[in-house]
Design brief:
single chain; 222 residues; alpha+beta; Butyryl-CoA Dehydrogenase, subunit A, domain 3; five-stranded antiparallel beta sheet; 5 helices; 5 strands; elongated; structural molecule activity; cell membrane; Claudin
Length: 222
């Protein structure tokens, strides 16, 4: 496996993992829309953990969601998926660092190191998939309520936290795919067959008299 591919995949997975940690506490997963409003006195924005409001003077107030069971199902699922993404990314970084060729953690057994690096790539893929599902599901509910003319509550738009999550998912998926494919190509070995020289194969038996006469001709004998 190419060491450059390992380093690039590790950097992409690490950046994606850091961006997941930035997206989870970000308060702007959804922001109240100003579409159709002549005067806007306050702005409401929410994430997976709390709801905040700010007025025209710049004073903002936040409160955490009081009950987990009282939340919508997609918010609970998004929380679980984002936490799972952090866990997968942490183990993916650890496995990739151990399985890299420049690392001495697993000794000099390159086959074992390649398999460990491949596991790290799979974990990066799981991190990206969990993040992608979480932020896409959350954004789907925002757009569904926004375009529903019969929705009686406050309508929201997509916030910057979701864009950070999408970027994180893409980086993790690309890094995990590169690492997994590189490990798969590196472990596939060509079969080598023993060399057989061309030429006459001689047996251990001496040639018969008729064969000798045929080979040397009649003039060889007196």
């Amino acid at each position: 496996m190419d060491p450059i591919v390992e380093v690039v995949a590790l950097l992409l997975g690490f950046i994606g993992w850091v961006m997941v940690g930035i997206a989870i506490p970000n308060r702007y997963w959804k922001v109240s829309t100003v579409d159709g409003s002549v005067i806007t006195t306050s702005t409401i924005y929410e994430n997976l953990w709390m709801s905040c409001a700010t007025d025209s003077t710049g004073i903002h107030n936040c409160h955490e969601f009081p009950s987990l069971l009282a939340l919508n199902g997609y918010i609970q699922a998004s929380r679980a998926l984002m936490i799972a993404a952090i866990i997968f990314g942490s183990f993916g970084l650890l496995a990739t660092l151990i399985g890299m060729q420049c690392s001495k953690a697993a000794g000099v057994n390159m086959v074992l190191k390649g398999r460990i690096a491949g596991v790290g790539g799979v974990l990066f893929l799981l991190q990206g998939l969990c993040t992608m599902i979480s932020v896409s599901w959350y954004a789907f509910n925002i757009t569904q309520d926004f375009f529903n003319p019969l929705y009686p509550g406050i309508k929201y738009e997509i916030g910057e936290g979701l864009y950070i999550g999408w970027c994180s998912a893409v980086l993790a998926i690309v890094g995990g795919s590169c690492l997994t494919c590189a490990c798969k190509l590196g472990t596939s070995e060509k079969q080598h067959y023993p060399y057989q020289p061309r030429g006459t194969v001689y047996s251990g038996m001496a040639p018969s008299q008729s064969q000798a006469a045929t080979s040397y001709g009649r003039n060889a004998y007196v």
